[in-house]
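DER reductase
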Amino acid sequence: ARVTALSRTAADLESLKRECPDIEPLCLDLADWDATEAAVGAAGPFELLVNNAAVAQLQPFLEVTRQALQRSFDVNLGAVLHVSQIVARQMIAQEVPGAIVNVSSQASQRALHDHAVYCSTKSALDMLSKVMAMELGPHKIRVNTVNPTVVMTDMGRINWSDPQKSAAMINRIPLGKFAEVDDVVNSILFLLSDKSAMTTGSSLMVDGGFLVS
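C-alpha cells:
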C-alpha cells in the first residue's frame, strides 16, 4: 500500500520514516484548514483513511478555558470532519469504494473527572461518524470508530502516570490492564479491511470491558 502519514510533529514523522522508509510524510497542523486542504488534496487520492489526531487538555469542569475548548474541538472534531471531507470527495470522484476509521474513546460514553471537554469531543466524534456513515454509504464508503480505553502511547503515559489515578481506572477494567498500541491498530485494520465489508456506522470498543463494569 502507498501510505501517507500526517502529523504536526516533525520529529515523530522523521522517526516513522526511519522505521518505514516508504511512508510519505506530511507535516502540518490539522487545525489550519487552508494548509490541510492544500496538502491532503495534493497527496491523494486515497482509498482508506484513519483519523487519529487528538489533543487531551484535562481540566476540572469549573476551570475549563476557552482556549482548551476551542483547541480540543478544532483537532478532535473539526480536523476529522475536514480531512474526511477532502478524502471522501476524492473517493467519490475516483468512483472507488473506501473506508474511514475515526479513533474515538471510551470517554465518549462514560463521564470521567477532568475530562469535560475531552469526553464532549469524543461523543461528538461518535455522532459525526454515524452521520458520515449514513451519507457516504451510497457512495460505498464505510465509516466506523474504534473506542479504546487508555492506550499506552506517549500521551497516555503522560496523563495516566500517577499510580493512584491509573489504579482507579484499571480496577474498573475487567481485563485488568490498559490497551497497547497494537490492540487498537489491529482493530483499525479489521475495520479498514474487506473482512468488515458490512460494518458501517459502528463503534468498536477496545476497552477491556470498561463500559460493562
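The mean pLDDT is 95.
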